[in-house]
Amino acid sequence: MGQKGRRRQNLARNGVNRRKDSLYQQVGGGDSQNGETLTYSMPYLPEDIWHRIHSLMPMRDAARAACLSRAFLHSWRCHPNLTLDWQTLCSKSKGGGGNFSRKIDSIIRNHSGIGLKRLELDIFDDDRTLPYIDSWLQFAVTPGIEELTLGLYKSAFRPMAELGPLRSLTTLHLCSVRITGDEVGCFLSNSPALEQLKLYDCKEIIFLKIPCMLQRLRCLSVFSCWMLQLIECKAPNLSNIYASGENIKLSLSEALCMKDLCMCFPNVIGYALAELPSIMPTLETLEIGSEDEVVNTPMLPTKFIHLKHLNIQITESDDYFHLASFLDASPSLETLFLDGI
User: Fold this and answer.
1) Cβ atoms within 10 A of the Cβ of 113, count?
2) Fewer CB near the last or first residue (10 Å), C or N of the chain?
3) Segment 252-266, tens digit of pLDDT
4) What residues does the At1g61320/AtMIF1 LRR domain cover (predicted)?
5) pTM of the model
């Protein structure tokens, strides 16, 4: 082959390599080995696509990728999902609560707050954590948040009116949080898109009022809120309620969409027989439990026309025969489960 032929071949080969390299980008995270910086070749994609890929990673993997790549470090500061709990941050660490608090504080300080959609904050209530809580909550409760889970273990969450509307919030879970019923009501009134509300072990709530403006609320769960006496709900499209406690009363101005109801508190069977057929005509699944039931079988003026699944748990000493009223009032019943506590 002549000199011109070899020159054409080299040019062609170099052209192919240049085209191939243009499809990749070199990514270096500052790691070095034997004095040389390590780089990695990644397919070239627009920045917004890499951000999207990064956002779909589990939080641990996303954090590791941010340590490896400067490109991912930028998107980490806008990562939409943060799970800040002991299992995620300290499962392999021998450090105590102080180390745990510093890890959370470092993550929050390095996050821009932009693009945050879901935050789960599950922390311990001790002297090392308390100084940080207010700043963490100010970071978390922003107008763009969609899912908020707070496990504060007796720490206070005092949402103020100046927070403004949280128009994107669809899910709120509060576990062992010191918050009053009025404060919950204030928070709900600023969350018109809320679809799911779950309260667990929130001992300062006595009266829970859910406003009619929550047109999208579908599911309400209230467990172990031992001071709670009354749930007043005016949300028109609520279809699922799960409630347990001591002496909870339900006041539902709108229950025409109710499909699934689970209740556990004293004398709930008599309440269900006397009240539910008329106020929840579309009920399909009913689960009730009582450890202290006064046997008083009322004559039902209306029936559970659509009830298909019935689960009743009562103490073994109770007389099961008084439950026959449920069978008479449930012409569409498909499954019946009776269990002695």
Assistant:
1) 14
2) N
3) 876 678 899 998 887
4) 150-339
5) 0.77
